[in-house]
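Entry type: protein chain
Record version: 2
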Amino acid sequence: MSRIQKLSVLVVAVMSIGSVASHDYGDALTKSILFYEGQRSGKLPSTQRMTWRKDSALRDGSVIGVDLVGGYYDAGDNVKFTFPMAFSITMLAWSVLEFGPSMGLDLQHSLDAIQWGTDYLLKATSVPGVVVAQVGDPYGDHNCWERPEDMDTPRTPYTVSKESPGSEVSAEIAAALAASSMVFRRFNQTYSASLLKRARMVFEFADKYRGSYNDSIGSWVCPFYCDFSGYQDELVWAAVWLMRATRAPYYWNYVLANIQNLDKTSSFAEFGWDAKHAGINLVKSQAPYTPEPFTTNADRFVCSVLPESKTVSVSYSRGGLLVKPGGSNLQRPAALSFLLLVYSRALRRDKRVVRCDNVVAKPDRLIQVARSQVDYLLGSNPLNMSYMVGYGDKFPQKIHHRGSSLPSVSQHPQHIDCDGGDSYFWSNNPNPNYLTGAVVGGPDIQDQYSDSRVNFVHSEPTTYINAPLVGLLAYFKTH
């Protein structure tokens, strides 16, 4: 592509990002939270609204004598990966802390979604010196197309310990519990205190016995959720959240002492289940006093995302979608837009702008870019297609999700074994069960999307796409 062609694409993207669309953000918010009920593992409560899902994995942990029933399946499979699950809970909690007052009746459902995760994280850290990093043999699971209610693949628990550490997964659990403790402080002080106490204990474990779970249980967590960014960012990320939750000087001193351990090249612009760098700077930017390097790196992050900036490090499709390398792309515009929205509030509070060389970005510009990504996801795109199941008139029908694509237990009470699900996987028929609110991986950089279960990179939903989106939708619902 020539320089002129690249410039024309950028101009189109900028124009798209400046556009305004009309969407029912309240409806999308309700559905984005409902999605988590479809991902529940364990004994479902009487309040379960997604009724085609039934109880599953009721003996998890029994082989090691620990109750590990509950938690979430991370995506379209039936494995409980604690690392991305904990990050999803951290982001749900952050969404409520920032935008809870805008959630209305959906606030209680958000609290329920968080507690379903934190209850499990408490179980996963209930044995001192041991953290459960995963439940379920991922290879056996991925070789079967089975409903979670029918699972007969091994439900092996994989743990990290003093001898076989996993600082990234342990620290992310600490961050999730600390952030959630702040959420529940208003609603259940006893539960909040228990979350915070466990967060401090798990953080101490993660820091004292340092090491990556890639080295401990890598043959089971890789290639699914390998840690590519190292565990230092999770340690600092957890310390930042513990600092917010406790206001103890110890955690602030820890952050200052360890921040230099993070990669200082391009990582300031990274944020997701694996890399927490941009999130660290943005959480700290919310404090009344934000010393260097947090403000500088937060500003650099903004300049790396704005399409008109000379230092932009992401790509934009012709339709205006933010794109970065890797699968499940919609996790990136969701997470980065959440950070833009949060930072816009800090900028407005401090009466400040971000300067990207010759570009001056005011808080409203950050909000505008964030909204453009949400609107694209909801249907303001070249295909006029919503990428949230059940929202709008046109949305993905054949998502890569076992429970959604197989008949429900109510409709087909007979057991469907490992091979019995193959015909449903390869079928061209729409999924019989709507996983309402699920956001799929999304289109490619050409704004094209293939509605196919086989193309899991684009058609598989995940808990960590929806988590930051909950906060974004809550804000735009009332603004």
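Comment: The longest helix spans residues 189-208.
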